[in-house]
Structure formats: structure tokens, C-alpha cells
Amino acid sequence: MRGERDVRETAEAGEAGQAGEAEPAAAEATVAALRAAGCVFAEEEAELLTAAAGGEEAALAALVARRAGGEPLEHVVGWAGFCGLRMRVGAGAFVPRRRTEFLVQQAVALAAADGRPRPVVLDLCCGVGALGAAVAARLGAGTELHAADIDPGALAYARANTAPYGGRVYEGDLYGALPRALRGRVDLLLANAPYVPTDEIALLPSEARDHEPPVSLDGGPDGLDVHRRIAEGAPPWLAPGGRLLIETSGRQAPHTAAALRAAGLAVRTVESEEFWATVVIATRTV
User: Which of 26, 82, 178, 201 is the most buried (most CB within 10 A)?
Assistant: First the structure.
């Protein structure tokens, strides 16, 4: 699920936090151990692990052992690069993907076009809060940020990641987690909800299926169970002219779009070859 662009995004976000290079022999040994474990981008990962260890040889050995054992790199170092920012993550948390940056780009562009001075942003199924934090960082002061998820473990990271932007975080199932005062006020509703069909979970890379929570991956028999629920419940929460942006796959996009149209929203689908990403955008027109 993660590839070269994800690793390089994390590496670029970590450059400012590097704690110096390891001794040549130690660096070579680290790279060799990672290569032996099957890490394709061993050099980049070695630099990140060395920085995370803070110059402590024993700490580095422990981190390398965890990574060689199959843990996601982001879980091991404690953060992921996303939209040029560091997002805190850890064991049991869904790691934000590079492709989801396309949704952030679309949301920011829509907000700029709408020109609302104090946009209300809701990151639903927020996980570690990366979407909301990245959008709020770009929209700047005046943004009112809310985030919600059913997974209490993820929300511990979401609180940390959204705190710099005044984020308010809620625990619960979709709209049931939200305060009633938000009804009819959301300008941008962001959703990277699970959309992997249940039978395809076993086909995912081990980093995802073995180390990320099933609730963040499993979208039901056709992958669209959560999308349908988000679509059905969205209109009362959106402000007039408010937008819902939801990440999906190319083959699922027509079905996600149909669910949003059935909810009375105006719908269009956008795709990016650069990010290998598909986002369905729905607008409340009445």
C-alpha cells in the first residue's frame, strides 16, 4: 500500500529532525540488515531509523529489529510525512497514505474558491487526524477544525496532530460522535473512510493487514458500507454550498457517487495520475 513516494515523503519531512549521520560502518550494517529483511528503500529507512535512535546504538538496534520484523516504518519512528508535515503515528494506527494528499489539494482549492473567511472543516473517520490537520495548516488562521473516529487508539494521535490548529476531537460512530451544534455548519467534510472489500483484506501487504486496525481498512463486502452511511447522513451536517470529499478507488467511484446522489447532493469525480488517487466531491446545493 505504501511505496517509494510514501517513504520519500517521510524522509523529506524528517530532514530537519535528523540527529546526525551514523558512523560509516554502523550505517552500512543498518542498511545491510534492512536489505536482508526485504526493505526496498533501505538507505532512506536507515537514515530515518538512525535519527529516531538519537545516536544510541542499542536504541538503533531495537528499531532496526522492529522494522526487520515487519512493522511499518512510520510505526517504528513514531511519525509519518504527509503534505510536508510530520503526523504522529504509532503501533495500531492507520498510516496516512501519500495518495490521500490529492484529497487535501482538492479541499484547499475548493475552500479558496469559496472564500469563506472562517471555514468549518470536519475530518470524519479521521484516524490520526492527518487530513484535517493538513487542510487546516493550509487554510490558516480562522479555520474551525473538528475530527471524529470510532477508534480510541487513533484519536490519541489525532488530538496531538490537530492540536496546533485548535482541533476538537470526538470519539464515536460517524455522525453520532458529533455535537449537534455542528449541524448545518460544515463547509468541508473530509472522509478517508475504509473502502477495502472484506475479502480483499488478506491480499493487502502485511504492513497493513497485520499492523493497522481492521476498522480502518474493512469497508464491508463491496468496500462501500461506510461510504453509503456517510452519504446518507451528510446533508444535515453540511452548510449550504458545503462540500463532502471522499477518497475511493476508480472502480468503486461510480457506486460512491451514486450513493451521494441518492442523498440529494450534486456530485463529480476527480482523479490524479500523479497520486494514483480518486476523490468523489459532493455539494449541498439546497
Answer: 82
Contacts (Cβ under 8 Å, ≥6 apart) of 56: none
How would you classify the pairing of strands 238-248 and 277-283? antiparallel
Q: Is 113 exposed, middle or buried (0-12, 13-18, 19+ CB in 10 A)?
A: exposed
Reported as a pLDDT band with limits 50, 70 and 90, residue 12 is low
The 186-191 sheet, strands edge to edge: 168-171, 144-149, 120-124, 186-191, 238-248, 277-283, 266-272
Give every CB contact of residue 41 below 8 A, 6+ residues apart in sequence.
Answer: 4, 7, 8
pLDDT at 26: 74
Extract the C-alpha cell encoding 212: 493497522
Q: Using the 8-state DSSP alphabet, how is residue 206 labeled?
A: H
**What distance in Å separates the CA atoms of residue 177 and residue 60, rounded to the nearest whole number?**
40
**CA–CA distance, 51 with 68 (Å, rounded to integer):** 17
Q: For residue 250, give the C-alpha cell.
A: 476508480
Q: Please tell me the distance from the alpha carbon of residue 56 to that of residue 45, in angstroms, as a whole number.
A: 17
